[in-house]
Design goal:
Blueprint (H helix, E strand, L loop, with lengths): L1 H22 L17 E9 L6 H20 L6 E9 L4 H12 L4 E5 L4 H13 L3 E4 L6 H4 L13 E3 L4 H15 L4 E6 L3 H17 L2 E7 L8 H9 L4 E5 L2 H13 L6 E3 L6 H7 L7 E5 L10 H8 L11 H18 L10 H8 L4 E3 L2 E3 L11 E8 L2 E9 L2
Parallel strand pairs: 1-2, 1-3, 3-4, 4-5, 6-7, 6-8, 8-9, 9-10
Antiparallel strand pairs: 10-13, 11-12, 13-14
Helix pairs in contact: 2-12, 3-4, 6-7, 9-10, 12-13
Length: about 400
């Protein structure tokens, strides 16, 4: 009987030993839910975007799209010997919060690249922080021209060679909108309004220059504050100038109520804006009178592109409860630009931190067909693709009315 008990006790000790050994061969699950063997090295792709606040819908779409790219890379063992993870930081669409988010990511030695941010004003504070730590940054949504060409448009000079973007810029999007308004919609007199932020002001400046060049007239140029909610005074000034349309530089939290208040105040003309208003939330806030309003957005509609079909299907089947929004496909391509670069930079790296500078160099050379089409970067870090789409509110949804390459 005593011998039998000793056998049982020995077996129990052996089982516990084997269990402990098995547990010791695994690390904790990453942000993307994957587990990795101890022998597998870890590299992290950071995300900086608004995950809370008025622009959270777009920011969450960015995060989810990067998450999808990372999961697919791990499933396909795209980078042998490495497991990729995602670490998302909330910038609240605020420059100071963006700087803090970037600082948090630089302190993580496994972070080798970052996708984001959404806002150009946030991009201005994030750039120097990531660059100082030699971390590559690929934005799917920043359209401010100075981010890649500096403040002197006549003498462009790249501020940071660590910064790239997959979207087109304001100096393309603004003129594209101006041509549509003047040549296609036949609107010859407009009023402009912007929110004083880098994105909105840049769009209006580029739009105005092209609209006047075409022969159009800007009958009123107004501004609002980013936190305004009552646009009555501005609408009164614009209405008295009798424009046939209004071009707005800013994002949907202000643009939607502005459109609604315009129509309620008797200014029954279409409001047009950039990709910052291209969201279902704009229509929710603008209401039923938003029919006919217009927006431009980068690229062709993702759900109509043969190249984006796999992304759209994978996102739909990925269990994400939130839509990928305007920048989903561009975020997916931004993440894959980094992943493609990591094939080279991590090949012989001891750890992720030592591969940061090599990753910057490798991203500059990426050349592949992504969800949005061909992905590559010019000498400034800008996307070489210059395709945009004009959308119009019809019923309760945005519908594409014109897709073209800007020349």
């Amino acid at each position: 009987m005593r011998k039998h008990r000793l056998v049982i006790a020995g077996a129990a000790v052996l089982a516990l030993s084997l269990t402990a050994t098995a547990c010791g061969t695994r690390s904790e699950s990453g942000a993307n839910g994957d587990t990795a063997d101890q022998a597998t090295k870890v590299a992290t792709i950071g995300v900086i975007s608004p995950l809370t606040g008025d622009l959270a819908a777009m920011g969450i779409g960015i995060k989810n799209s990067v998450d999808l790219a990372v999961k697919q890379a791990n499933e396909n063992k795209t980078i042998p010997g490495w497991t990729l993870k995602i670490r998302a930081e909330d910038d609240e669409a605020k420059p100071d919060s963006g700087r803090n988010a970037a600082t948090n990511l630089t302190s993580d030695k496994t972070v080798v690249g970052v996708v984001g941010p959404l806002n150009s004003s946030v991009g201005q504070t994030v750039q120097p922080v990531l660059n100082s730590s030699k971390i590559v940054e690929v934005s799917p949504a920043n359209t401010g021209v100075s981010l890649t060409k500096g403040e002197d448009a006549a003498n462009p000079k790249r501020p940071y060679n660590s910064y790239f973007r997959t979207c087109t810029t304001d100096d393309i999007q603004g003129p594209f909108a101006a041509r549509y308004m003047y040549q296609t919609a036949g609107i010859k007199k407009v009023a402009t309004i912007h929110d004083k932020k880098a994105y909105g002001q840049g769009l209006v400046t580029a739009f105005t220059e092209e609209f006047k060049k075409l022969g159009g007239e800007v009958v009123s140029a107004q501004t609002i504050n980013p936190d305004d909610s009552n646009f009555g005074p501005v609408i009164s000034k614009v209405k008295s100038a009798k424009p046939a349309g209004v071009y707005y530089g800013g994002e949907y939290p202000q643009a939607g109520p502005l459109s609604q208040q315009m129509k309620a105040g008797g200014l029954n003309v279409p409001l047009m804006g950039g990709d910052g208003i291209y969201s279902p939330n704009y229509i929710k806030q603008a209401g039923k009178t938003s029919g006919g309003d217009l927006a431009t957005s980068v690229g062709a509609p993702a759900d109509t592109l043969p190249s984006a079909k796999d992304f759209v299907d994978a996102y739909a089947n990925g269990g994400y409860k939130d839509p990928y929004e305007a920048y989903g496909a561009y975020s997916y391509d931004a993440a894959n630009a980094i992943i493609n670069a990591l094939k080279t930079s991590l090949a012989n790296a001891e750890d992720a931190g030592s591969a940061r500078e090599a990753t910057i160099e490798a991203v500059a050379k990426v050349d592949f067909d992504g969800a949005t089409g061909h992905v590559s970067f010019d000498e400034f870090g800008d996307a070489t693709a210059r395709v945009l789409t004009v959308y119009q509110v019809k019923g309760d949804a945005w519908q594409p009315v014109k897709t073209d390459e800007f020349k």
